[in-house]
Amino acid sequence: MSFVSWQFVAFFAITLAGLRVMPTRESRQLLLLVANVIFYGSGTPWHLAVLGVPSIIDYAAARRIEAATDARTRKQWLQFSIACNLGLLAYFKYADFFVDTVAHLVGTSTLPLLIALPVGISFFTFKTMSYTIDVYRGEIPACRSLWRYAMFVSFFPELVAGPIVRASIFLPQMDRPLTPRWGRTVIGLQIALIGVAKKLLIADRLASFSDSVFDAPAAFSQGTVIAAVIAYSLQIYCDFSGYSDIAIGVARIIGFDLPENFDMPYLATSITEFWRRWHMTLSRWLRDYLYIPLGGNRRGPWRTYLNLAITMLLGGLWHGANWTFVAWGLLHGLGLAVHKLVRSRATSDAAPRSMLGTVLSWAATYTFVCIGWVFFRSPDFATAATVLAKMAGLSPGGVTWLYAPLFMVVPAVVAAHAIGVLHQRGVRWRVLRATQQPGTGTYFGLRYAGFATGALIVAALLTLFLFTPLHHSPFIYFRF
Amino acid sequence: MPEQLPPDRSQSRWRCFASVAMGACAALIGFEAFLRVFISPVEVVLPVIASDSVAGTPVEIRQLQEGVATTHFSAGGAHLTGNAWIEPAHRVVIIGDSYVVARETADEQTMGAWLERIGRSASIPVDVRQYGWRGASPARYVVEGPAVLKRWQPDAVVVPISTIDLDQHVVTGAKPMLSVAHDGSWRVVSDPSDTTTWAPRRRARSVLAEAIESRWAQLWVRAPRALRQLAASWDAQASVTSSSEIDPPLELIPSAVVQSLKHAYGDRLVIAYLAVVRVIGDEHPDPLEVRLLDACRAQSVTCVSLREDMLAARKRGIIARGFQTTTLGSGHLNAEGHRLVATAVWPYVRERLAAAAAAR
C-alpha cells in the first residue's frame, strides 16, 4: 500500500477514527497492531510470515540474552538471532544475485530463482537486529511483551522504507496515550503534505526524464545526460525524503516521534558531511553496528580507511542485490577514506574556509555524489559506463532534450534550502512556524490561522491536484 | 529543545475564519490569473470551412499541456501559418486531427507554415490553409471534402494520418465515422446533429474551473472500474451510447480509409503517415503502416511515410515528437516534426502544383 494512494488515505482515516473511539491505551495499541498487519498484508499476505517469524525469534532471543548469566550463552543467542535475520535477508534478497554471480564465474547460466522480495525486508531486519544487539550490549532491557515488540517491528509508517527506528526510541513512546490530538495532527499533516509534494510534484515529475535517459543514455547528448543525472539526484532525494516526511508526519498524528532521516544533504561540503545528512538513520546504524564493531578508528589510520570501505561496501549491498550497488558503496567508502586521509594531513582544522573554498568543496562533493548516483541508478556497469562517458564528453552526439520541469524544480529546491539555512542562522518568519522535537529535525509549517495560511493551503492543494503527473512511480526505496 | 516562539495574536473566531477565507479566495484568484497566462479562456476552435475567410481578426489560443505555446486561428477555424497570404498563389489545404490543430506548435512552425516557406523559397507561391479537429477520424476529412474543394479550390490536399486513423477508432469513434463492410466497401455514418458552427465565445467559466474539470476527467478514467460502472449505471445515456454496432475486419480499414479520401479529393490527395519514432527502436514499419502503403499503391494514391525521415533526423539528434514538458518521442509532433512533414510531402505537392499550372 503506497502512501500516495487513495487506499492509504482511506486506511489511515479509518485507523485514526478507530484510535479516536478506542477507550483505553491498550485497545489503541491493539488497534494499531491490527492496522500494521492490514497495511503490510494488503500487498502479499504471506509476507506477513516473513515479518512475523523472525520477529518472534528476535523477541525470544532477546529474552534469552537478558536471562542468560554467562557470556557464552548470551553470545550464542545473539549469533543465532543475527544468523536468522541475515539468513532471511540472504535468501529473499541475495539468493538470485549469488547464484547468478557464481554461475557467471564458472561460465554457465542459470534460470533465476524468482523469489519475491518482501517489501521493506532490508529495513525491518536491520531494525530487529539492532534490537537484539542493543539488548546484548545491555543498552536496553528486553521487551517483556510480545505484542508491544510486534508493534515496534511492524509499525506501518516506517515499516517499508524507514526511517530505521531503534527500540530505545520507539518502545518508550508506546506508553503515550496514542490519541490523535489536534495540535499534533495539524503539524503532522503539514509534514506529510510536504512529503507528498516532494514525491508527486518533484520526484515523479523528474522520473519521466531521468528514466528515459537512463534507459538509452547513448541516444542523448552530453548536456542531456548531465541534466538527467542532476534530475536523478533530485528525484531520489525528494522521493526518499518525501517518504520519510510522510512517515514522520503520519507517525506524529498517531502520537509517535520518529527520528529525522535527511538534513539538506546536498548542502554538504564533504562526503563525510554528506553521510551525516543523508539517510541519517542508516548512517548511524552502519556506524554503531558495523563500523565500530570492525574497529572503527581505534586501530590506526589504514585500518580505519579499510573499515570505512568495508562498511560502505556492505551498505551499498544492503541497498540492492546488484554489483552496481556494491560499486556505489565502495565508491563512497573510498571517498570517505580519502576525505579522512586528507583531513588528517591538513595543517590546521581550525583555519576558516574561504567562500571560494566552501563553494569548490560543495561542488566537488555534489559532483562526487552524482557520479555515485550513476552507479546507483544504472541497471548494469555497461549503462553506467555509457552515462559516465557521455558526461565526460567522450561520446559526442545524441539527442538534446531540455526538460523544462527540471529548470523549475531546481529554483524551488534552492529556495527551500535557503529557508532552512536562514532558519539555522536565526531568521524567523511570521507565516512559518518551525516545529522541532529532540532528535526529530526541524520542519516548517504554517501558523494556525490567517490570510497567508488560507492562501497557502489552497495554493498547495490546487498545485497538487493540477500539476502532479498522472502516472506515479513507486517509491524508489520500496525495492530495498 | 522545542523552539520558543511568541504566541499567536489572539483573534476572534470570526476574524480568524474570515482571514483564512480571504486568503483562500486570494489563492483562487491568483491561480486564475496565473493560468490565464498559459491557457486561453476561449472555446476550442472548430473549423467551418465554407465560411472561413482570410480576412478577420485571429483568435489566440494558449496551452500548456504539451510544452507552452501560443497559436492563432482564423475565424473559420484554420490554424494560421504566420506567413502573409499572397495572391495569386497555389492553394494547398492540410486537413487532419489534432496533429493539424497543433495548439502546441507555434504558427510559424506548423507544417503549413513550413510548406509555404519551402514553396516560396523555390519561387513557387503557395498559400496553405490547415484545418484540424481534435479526435477526428478520416470520415471527418471525407465529409469536409466538398466544402474544402468549393471554398479554396486547392491544387493539393495533404492529409496527415497516424495509427489512430487506421485502426478500430475509424469505425467505432465519434461520428462522423466510417462504416466498412466485409467486402471492403465503405460509407460515412454521419451524425444528424453535427452542427460544427464555430463561435469563439468567451467562456462563462474560469480557466481554473476548466483546468480542474479537465484534470478530474483525466483522474476519473483511472478510477477503479467498479466505481466508474456504478456511476455509469446512474447515467442511462452513457449506457446507450457505449454500445458498438460495427465490427469489420481491422485489416480492411486502411484500404477503406484510402478509398474514401481518394473519393473526396481525387488526384489532389497526398497522404502523410506520421510514424512513431521514439528515442530508440521503431526502425521497422508497423503493420498498419504496411497496410496503408499497400493500399495506397493498389489505388495509385500518393502516400509518404515519415518513418525514414524521422529515423534520419534522429541520427542528427532530432526527435519529431514530444515537448519540453513531456516525454520525448511520444505525443504530438513538435516543431521539428512539422518541418519534417512539410519537407517530406513537398516534392509530391510540387508535382500537383505543376500539374495544376499546366492544366490552366
Q: Could you explain the architecture of this structure?
A:
The complex is a heterodimer of chains A (480) and B (360). Helix content of chain A is 66%, strand content 2%. With 480 residues, chain A is mainly alpha-helical. Chain A has a domain at 6-179. A two-stranded antiparallel sheet of chain A has the order 1-2. Helix content of chain B is 41%, strand content 13%. The longest helix of chain B is centred in the N-terminal third of the chain and has 26 residues, at 13-38. The A-B interface holds A 208, 212, 215-216, 219-221, 397-405, 428, 433-438, 442, 447-459, 462, 465-466, 470 and B 1-3, 5, 8, 11, 16-17, 19-28, 30-31, 67-68, 208, 211-212, 215, 218-219, 222, 279-280, 314, 317-319, 324-325, 327-329.
Helix content of chain B: 40-55%
Order of helices and strands of chain A: HHHHHHHHHHHHHHHHEEH
Shape by Cα distribution of chain B: globular
Rounded to the nearest angstrom, the radius of gyration of chain B is 24 Å
> Any low-confidence stretches of chain A, pLDDT <50, length ≥5?
none
Give a short account of the largest sheet of chain A.
2 strands, antiparallel
Provide the spatial order of strands within the biggest beta sheet of chain B.
Answer: 4-3-5-8-9
Order of helices and strands of chain B: HEEEHHEHHEHEEHHHHEHEHH
Of all protein chain pairs, which has the greatest interface, and how many residues does each chain bring to it?
A-B, 41 and 40 residues
Major sheet of chain B: size, sense and barrel closure? 5 strands, parallel
Distance between the termini of chain A: 15 Å
Mean pLDDT of chain A: 88
Question: How many beta-strand segments of chain A?
Answer: 2
How much beta of chain A, percentage-wise?
under 5%
Compute the number of helices of chain B.
Answer: 13
The oligomeric status of these chains comes to heterodimer
Number of strands of chain B: 9
Span from first to last CA of chain B?
91 Å
